[in-house]
Amino acid sequence: MLDCAIIGGGPAGLTAGLYATRGGLKRVVMFEMGMPGGQITQSSEIENYPGFYEHGKTGMDFMDTWQEQCFAFGLVHEMKKVIGVAKTGDHFTVTFEGGDSVEAMSVIVGTGSTPKRTGIKGESELWGKGVSTCATCDGFFYKGKSVIVLGGGDTALEEAHYLSNICEKVILVHRRDSFRASPSTVERVERTANIEIITDTVIEEIVGDMMGVTGVTLKNLKTEESRQLEVPGVFIFAGHTVNNEVLKEESGAFICEMNEWGQVVVDLSMKTSLEGLYAVGDMRIQAPKQVVSAAGDGAVAALQVISYIQERA
User: Fold this and answer.
1) 126, 149, 171, 217, 296 from 230: Cα distances, Å
2) Interatomic CA distance for residues 250 and 44, integer angstroms
3) Which of 27, 127, 200, 268 is 20 to 30 A from 224 in CA distance terms?
4) d(CA 292, CA 281)
5) Mean pLDDT computed over 75-82
6) How many angstroms separate the CA atoms of 187 and 124, rounded?
7) DSSP string across 205-233
8) Is 134 one of the catalytic residues?
């Protein structure tokens, strides 16, 4: 039986593995189908992780050293797809695609979330090359420049306001004539001088070259008129899909408490409502969706697992 099964190999899962093994647990396995690293490996440059500041270093470069360090302390990586987690008595059963399973005293789940794509022409080709879903991550690259923000919810407007402190101009584009965001958020955006609001409008195409995004084509849904804008960056906020399938029973019910958006409800110790089960990173409630925060989640969860197992020894 494993001391701890870690599901997901992003920054949260890797850090959990590092702290668990270095903290004395002997049987810790991380299940991740591909190479560990998570979404950050797709980033073209990393600038906001403390202690890591090398111009031109990519997300892949950044995560390479994490893997080496974690595996050095005994973390085992198995390329198996987990399809379910269930608790029986005082332990968990982790089931894999194909029907095999393993038992574990504790489970840390860090399967993250996936930004929703809109299907706009050029979006996929320029993803990570001027098309972003994180203002905190990438906003600084557009200091003193103009960018477009697409969306009408709280996240889109909050990120637009964040970008307004960095960029010369923020153009907020929304397909409707009113926003879904809270009134106070809308009011704050409306009174921000360098945010231009364009409603009843969609992005028809994102264009670019080898260097990245160069502009967009906008279409007004009422007049059907199209126009081009030259911008180096487009921030899309169409929501996230929480990767929570492993926490579902066959009936479709979840094994622990979730919120209305499918995020796992945890306390400050990353504990879920099911004893011995922890959730970390982008899949938990109120996740900042930053590497540094995900790593912190993993460390906290692993320390809790060590205490949890010691109490049952």
Assistant:
1) 15, 14, 11, 9, 39
2) 39
3) 127
4) 10
5) 96
6) 33
7) EEEEETTEEEEEEEEETTT--EEEEE-SE
8) yes
Question: Does the pLDDT value for residue 56 go beyond 70?
Answer: no
Residue in the block written with tokens 């001027």: 130
What are 271's two structure tokens? 């504990």
**What average pLDDT does the segment 12-25 reach?**
97
Distance between CA atoms of 241 and 139, rounded to whole angstroms? 22
CATH number 3.50.50.60 is the correct assignment for the domain at 2-115+240-311 = yes
Instruction: Give the pLDDT confidence of 271-282 residue by residue, as tens digits.
Output: 999 999 999 999
- The answer to whether the beta carbons of residues 97 and 83 sit under 8 Å apart is yes
Catalytic residue among 4, 137, 167, 256: 137
Choice among 3, 4, 70, 138 that is catalytic: 138
Burial state string for 40-62 with b = 16 or more CB within 10 A and e = fewer than 16: bbebbbbeebeeeeeeebbbeeb
Q: Is the pLDDT of residue 44 over 70?
A: no
Phi, psi of 120 (to 5 degrees): -60, 140
pLDDT in tens, 100-112: 999 999 999 999 9
CATH 3.50.50.60 residue ranges of the chain are 2-115+240-311, 131-236
138 noted as active-site residue: yes
Question: pLDDT tens digits, residue range 24-40?
Answer: 999 999 999 877 777 77
Name the class of domain 131-236. Answer: alpha beta
**Those residues with Cβ within 8 angstroms of residue 162's Cβ, 6 or more apart along the chain or in another chain:** 135, 136, 139
One-letter identity of residue 249: E
Give, in order, the Cα–Cα distances in Å from 171 to each of 7, 194, 200, 229: 39, 8, 13, 10
Query: Within a 10 A sphere around the Cβ of 162, how many other Cβ atoms?
Result: 16
